[in-house]
Write a structure and sequence with these properties.
It is built from 10 helices and 15 strands. It is an alpha+beta fold and 470 residues long.
């Protein structure tokens, strides 16, 4: 290996991190054509790549071929956000983290080498065994915009190092992506999402039917709000599955499905906030509370606020086909009709969800304190263990109704990202099922209390009749 710090080939970027190796015609048939860079990079060139390079030079088998490698600073490669969106990649990766903060440029001869059946191998030594990444190369589109792409490259892990097998030569890097789980986990998470959404659709629909059947008998405000939340969840899971399955349709159809999914998600967030507000009025401010046309005003907030936000987003044309990487070699991608602009998604989804969660977490703390005060004032109950289980069940039910599991959306990064992702997917995919069980528990409890009160009334009337006859 030789290192040249000043001279660079014509047309190349001048850099002190410049390495080369001459491959003579007598070495062409050797199996090992390796350039080992002492900075943690090993390049292995195949015989096919050498033959293609010589053929590109007019079949010149006399002169030596020059295998060139150059380490460049990552700041020279800026991802264009516009091309990021047009190519359908994840806009969250507009500022990627590169392994070693360097880009490895590799050339062989004067002509481009591509479409190799025997890929070249590039080894990136990895000192941090916890890092997970994918091999990428720098792609320029027709407009001259650059972006990282995985086409033609596969990622392997050997002894903790990243090994990139690519069918061409270019500028290469390893994109560190701790948020991207293994392909097997992605398949499992997808199945959990689809099954959970299907069950949530079925159970929320059943809950709405039960409410309509019992509406003539009872029409409590709490039950009405539960049903509104269930309705928004029904639409959310239905629109989610539709956006995934029909993402390949025409752009107007996908834009409509993206708008519907965005609206349903915001409506779900809003109705969880309404649940927290009503719970506060129900348990904390019990007396002297009268709000004229209370249900109508709650409905206007629950459905009106998301409609207003979505109408503004629709005017700015932010809906369309959104694609994100589904596995490390990018062989498949999950497509979804959704918001295509990162800024709009952060403000209207992440920001809105944060406000709702802060409000509902505060309401949950207030309610728990109030429930503890009521418990301390009540008579002591002999079966403390049973009471503890009921309290925990109430806490879990309230947390589900108030949308607390959505907080896991902000904790899916870092060492616990995979476990958090599984918990988040299970809880939110099956949220419709959990709320149905909560609604069923409240309904059974109300019937039981009604039966007890009716029995007490019968007994009182019976004893009164006895006293009158005496």
């Amino acid at each position: 290996m030789r290192q040249c710090k000043q001279s660079t080939p014509k047309g190349r970027i001048s850099t002190p991190n410049y390495f080369y190796r001459r491959i003579s015609p007598s070495e062409q048939d050797q199996l090992d054509h390796t350039l080992d860079i002492d900075k943690g990079y090993i390049i292995n060139i195949t015989e096919e790549a050498i033959l293609k390079s010589r053929n590109g030079q007019g079949g010149n088998n006399v002169t030596d071929l020059l295998l060139i490698a150059s380490l460049l600073n990552e700041t020279l490669f800026r991802v264009s956000s516009s091309s990021d969106t047009k190519k359908g990649n994840d806009p969250n990766e507009s500022d990627p983290i590169l392994h070693g903060q360097s880009v490895l440029g590799v050339w062989l001869g004067a002509k481009e080498v591509q479409n190799l059946s025997q890929p070249v191998q590039l080894r990136f030594r990895n000192s941090n065994q916890n890092e997970r990444g994918i091999c990428v190369f720098w792609h320029l589109d027709k407009n001259g915009r650059g972006n990282w792409s995985t086409d033609g490259c596969e990622t392997h892990i050997e002894n903790g190092d990243f090994v990139c097998s690519c069918n061409h030569l270019s500028f290469f890097a390893v994109l560190i992506s701790p948020q991207i789980p293994e392909e097997s986990h992605i398949v499992h998470l997808s199945y959990i999402s689809y099954v959970g959404s299907a069950l949530s659709i079925a159970f929320t629909a059943l809950m709405i039917v039960m409410f309509l059947c019992q509406r003539k008998k009872q029409c409590e405000h709490a039950v009405f709000i539960h049903v509104q939340l269930s309705g928004s969840l029904f639409l959310l899971h239905f629109s989610f599955l539709s956006s995934v399955w029909f993402s390949g349709q025409s752009p107007p159809v996908c834009q409509g499905l993206g708008l519907l999914l965005h609206w349903c998600l915001l409506a779900t967030f809003t109705w969880t906030a309404v649940e927290g507000f009503h719970l506060y009025l129900l348990l904390v401010r019990v007396f002297n509370i009268y709000i004229k046309r209370y249900m109508l005003k709650l409905s206007l907030v629950g459905w009106g606020v998301p409609t207003f936000i979505v109408m503004i987003c629709a005017v700015t044309k932010v809906y369309g086909k959104y694609s994100f990487q589904a596995d490390k070699d990018n062989s498949t991608a999950t497509h979804l009709c959704w918001v295509t602009k990162q800024t709009v998604s952060y403000i209207t989804v992440n920001g809105y969800l944060w406000l709702v969660l802060l409000f509902n977490m505060a309401m949950l703390v207030v309610v728990l304190v109030k429930m503890h005060q009521l418990r301390s004032q009540a008579l002591q109950i002999k079966d403390h263990q049973r009471r503890a289980w009921k309290d925990w069940a109430s806490l879990l039910g309230l947390s589900c109704v108030l949308g607390v599991p959505w907080v896991l959306a902000f904790s899916t990064h870092g060492p616990l990202s995979l476990s958090s992702l599984y918990v988040f997917t299970i809880l939110n995919s099956f949220q419709g099922v959990f709320i149905f069980l909560w609604f069923l528990t409240l309904t059974c409890k109300a019937r039981k209390e009604k039966q007890i009160s009716s029995k007490g009334t019968i007994q009182v009337s019976y004893h009164s009749n006895e006293d009158v006859t005496r």
